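Subject: sequence -> structure tokens, single chain

Hey, anyone have a minute? Need the predicted structure for the following. Not urgent.
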Amino acid sequence: MNLRQIEVFHAVYLHGTVSAAARALNVSQPSVTKVLRHAESSIGLPLFERARGRLIPTDDARALFAEVSDIQDRVRSLRQACHNLRLGRGSLLRVSALPSLGLRAIPEAVAAFMHDHKDLLFDLQTLHHDEMVRKLYERETDIAISFEVPATAPVGHQVIGEGELVVLYREQDFPNAPPRIHLASLQDHKFISPIQGGPIGRILSSELDHLGVVLDEVASARTYYVAAALVRAGVGMAIVDNFTAQASMTEGLATRPLQPAITFDINAVYMQDRPPTRMASEFLDRLATLIDEP
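Reply:
Had a minute. Here:
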């Protein structure tokens, strides 16, 4: 399939009819029909079946769609880059970060950096740790900001700050909380546990095992902002990273660090053969400064 056939297939798949695809592409219906027929001929497979005036993707079409979508995204990115060059705009920096960092730290760093670098464009995404290597390999992102560095992947990294686990709770549920909270003092409270497979979950589980503490887990949350929402709703307390806690603070909520403190590194991860550019390094310095602020 050539690029034109991919574009038409993608439009028909999304819109369900030739007429709607033609309007989306701003071309005639016969043109769409002709290109689609050539696409099916070139790969030797039917891609759609007609049913009540709509085109229903075949199983083969569904299998192809993910690949085609990725190509379409890359073509759009190329067109945007060309458009930016024509307008004299600067380079594009693609940054992926964990949702907790995307709530506050990353947006504030981007806003401050763009104030001094008005020609730089950002493409920001959130990710989970298990997506990091794929996004870097497939060039969907230039830098991933995470709490963990993949051990076996050919990546480089630099530590740009430190985070800490904290207890997030409603003030009415723990009115006389000390300045730092020992995990053992949480045993009589309902607890929202983090996903055990993530780095923070593993750190917390290890510390609980070491202390012989068993918490009353009434719910689990795969993302920390969901855990924070459950705390606000009165489901229980949660142990989250300090970035999630800071971004989630509303009236009636409070946060305390643990005793002893449980800390972790914040890493900027990148492919070894694609180290950060000068502009990216400057942005990471700005982000590190912001993370280090109290």
